[in-house]
Every structure is written in C-alpha cells, then in structure tokens.
Amino acid sequence: QVQLVESGGGLVQSGDSVKLSCLISGRSANSLIVSWFRRAPGKGREFIGRIGGSGTSDYNDDLRREGCFAISRDNAESTVYQQVNDLRPEDTTKYYCAADIDASTYSYWGRGTQVAVAT
Q1: What sign has the CA pseudo-torsion 60, 61, 67, 68?
Q2: Residues 91 and 115: beta-carbon distance below 8 Å
Q3: Share of the chain above pLDDT 90, in %
Q4: What is the DSSP string of 40-92?
C-alpha cells in the first residue's frame, strides 16, 4: 500500500520560503507521478503542479507566481519536494501531495502539512 507523508509546514513570515516534503513508501518512488495541491478553508482544492518519475514538472499557470513554486524529487530518498518562495498571507493553507501512475488520477493522498504565513 502506497503511503504519502507530508512535512515541512509551520508558521512563517511574509516573504519567507518553505520547503515541503512528501515521503513515499510502499512502492518505488520513481514509478509514481506526484502532484501538490492546496486547500484553504472554505475553498476548493487547487492544483499547484506535478512531477513525473524522471523529474519533468509542470505547474498550474493560474496559480504559479514566477519563481515562487518549484517541485523537485529525490527518488533515492523516495521524496518529492515543493519549494515555495516569497510566501504571502494568502498562501496560508494546508498543502497535500498526491500520487498515481497516471497523471490524471490521484489514488494516493497524504494527510497534508499546514503552512501559516504571518503578516
């Protein structure tokens, strides 16, 4: 059974950066496409971006601020990362990683990691 565990969230200041991690277990990490989402209270789920097993990534153009979101992976460590730079209060939300062997489905989800950005 594939399990995903996010970490790296916390309370940060506006303008700070945070690097979130998604640890994968139960399956070879490089066989999975991993996506990052976020969901703010009262709002729907927002797709941030995804990364394939070989490291090719793509992002939600409506959400991405230039240079602010970057997804990477270390298959040897079975971990996918999301770097978020220049955090703003509106980035306060819970961030989730999801994975599947297909880019359009998300069979496996983590429980999320909370990021709170103070003004």
Answers
A1: negative
A2: yes
A3: 80
A4: -TTS-EEEEEEE-TTS-EEE-TTTPPTTTEEEEEEGGGTEEEEEE-S--GGG-
